[in-house]
Amino acid sequence: MRIKILLSGLVLAAIASSALAANRPAGYVTICSEGKSCFVASATTVAFGRADKFTYKLLSGNFVCSEAVFGPRIAGGVNECSISRTTTSSSSAPAQSSSSKPVASSVPSSVVSSVRSSSSSSVNNPTVGGFYPGCEKPTPTETVQFTETRVVAAGEVFDGLNKRYNFTGGGQAEGQPPVFRVLEGGAVRNVIIGSLAADGIHCLGNCTLDHVWWEDIGEDAATAMGPTGTIMNITCGSALNGSDKTFQFNGRGELHISRFYVQSSGKLARTCGDCTGNGGPRKLVINDVITRDVSTIVGINSNFGDVATIRNLTLNNSGTSKTKICQVYKGVVKGSGSSSALGVEFDTPNCDVRPNDVTLLGVSQMNTSACVGSCPIP
Q: Per residue in 189-208, pLDDT tens?
């Protein structure tokens, strides 16, 4: 009987320990609970959440463990703020000491820790080479060859079941058909688009692309074609090897990109420079995105009233070429000449982004030189 009681106690202790650990990532230690003020002496990745769901920020000094600092809390219990066990010089205090000092944008701990551990070889680290943490491309369950564009009907949710889908083409030739054409309110999820990517996905209205991975970008990965008032929402995926644009914005409305990884592409997103009937305004919202060797993050037309909002962007480049974060152009209507680049902007009516919204990993650099009018791009 005594042995049974002892074993039962050990099991209960293990269960309790497991439940407690679920409120912080593996290898992390809690420094304060929700509503309390915490302190870290130097730039430190802090996790916020519970029940194995976390958001991360790189912070320094005093901050409040709250959704005001980290974003939405995880419901169902008290959230905790935690740091890696290898980090020191942290403490907690009552909530009245609440000055928050973000050193850089929100960066997943798997990105930061992998770079720290790999030193100068971080550019080859597989942890950040190919996916946004939590959104890794799965192994395709099978490959499906389309013979025509798959139309996703209005309101339909197409679940690709993590299959790879090929169609045709895949080069940069203009006018290719899309693999998927998504009508108003439709969604595509759990889809891998292979090398025969044609013109990717066309969204003709409100649409969601959730857990979609492009193995080799064709003409464009996806194009927003909806009218004013519509949103194309792209979340949790990746796109590789686009010699020009990754996402094209030809319609109006808004394009939102979050929890996404792009590698080896000319631009992350571009509002159309010379479409038929071109105009605006168009709105781009970029949040929680990692890029590697992408020359320009967004290109927008200031004369059409385009606005780009960028938060929590991480650059993990293999070289020292300077990435343009928000490149401003003068857009034109098709047949009226060519769109012209005006310069790189920060914290302007068109470019809602500041340098501290961008985290630079390894040898990455960004272009912080401003240029307006017709002067050459630095």
A: 999 999 999 999 999 999 99
Total-model pTM: 0.68
Rounded to 5°, the CA angle 233-141-151 comes to 45
Sequence spans of domains, the chain = 28-84, 143-366
Task: Quote the mean pLDDT of the chain.
Answer: 82
Rounded CA separation 330/274 (Å): 10
Sign of CA dihedral 21, 26, 27, 32: negative
CA–CA gap between residue 341 and residue 329 (Å, rounded): 4
Q: What is the rounded CA–CA span in Å between residue 54 and residue 209? A: 22
Give me the architecture of the 143-366 domain, per CATH.
Answer: 3 Solenoid (2.160)
Q: ω into residue 281 within 30 of 0, thus cis?
A: yes
The residues that bridge with 168 in the sheet, in sequence order, are: 197
Number of other CB atoms surrounding residue 196 within 10 Å? 18
pLDDT in tens, 80-116: 998 887 654 444 433 333 333 333 334 444 444 333 2
Inter-CA distances, 117 with 124, 127, 263, Å: 12, 11, 22
* Beta-carbon contacts of residue 158 (< 8 Å; ≥ 6 apart): 150, 152, 180, 182, 186, 187, 188, 189, 191
Write the secondary structure of the chain as one string of H (helix), E (strand) and C (coil).
Answer: CHHHHHHHHHHHHHHHHHHHHCCCCCCEEEEEECCCEEEEEEEEEEEEEECCEEEEEEEEEEEECCHHHHCCCCCCCCCEEEEECCCCCEEEECCCCCCCCECCCCCCHHHHHHHHHHHHHHHHCHHHCCCCCCCCCCCCCCEEECCCCEEECCCCEEEEEEEEEECECCCCCCCCCCCEEECCCEEEEEEEECCCECCCEEECCCEEEEEEEECCCCCCCEEECCCCCCEEEEEEEEEEEEEEEEEEECCCCEEEEEEEEEEEEEEEEEECCCCCCCCCCCEEEEEEEEEEEEEEEEEEEHHHCCEEEEEEEEECCCCCCEEEEEEEEECCCCCCCCCEEEEECCCCCCEECCHHHEEECCCCEECCCCCCCCCCCC
- Region 240-244: what's the mean pLDDT? 87
